[in-house]
Specification:
single chain; alpha/beta; globular; Conserved hypothetical protein from pyrococcus furiosus pfu- 392566-001, ParB domain
Length: 110
């Protein structure tokens, strides 16, 4: 998935209102600064090894968000990376359904 898709309009953060809020928090907190430094070093050396998890709600199918991997996402954005590995799932009234098929890019409104 292209890193440029990680935006306030397309693939949103869940724990923060905007991606810049996540970035600001990670810069403020000592523990987050350490995590970010380690992640960036590892990504530059080995690439991103742990995929970012994306969730899509069946109820609001244009609401695509990072369910797990906010630090990884911000590190990739700061490094100017081109792409990131990911897993994705639908959330519906029956629970979470991990997908193995192609990502539904139409949910991003492209």
């Amino acid at each position: 998935m292209p890193v440029r898709m990680l935006s306030d309009r397309l693939i949103k953060p869940t724990e923060y209102t905007k991606w810049r809020h996540a970035e600001q928090r990670f810069a403020r907190r000592n523990e987050d600064r350490k995590i970010m430094a380690q992640l960036k070093e590892a990504i530059l050396r080995d690439g991103l090894r742990e995929p970012i998890e994306l969730g899509i709600s069946e109820r609001y199918p244009t609401d695509v968000y990072v369910a797990d991997g906010h630090h990884r996402a911000v590190a990739l954005m700061q490094l100017g990376a081109d792409e990131f590995p990911f897993h994705w799932y639908w959330i519906n009234n029956r629970g979470v359904l991990w997908e193995t098929g192609p990502f539904p890019f139409h949910t991003l409104g492209l």
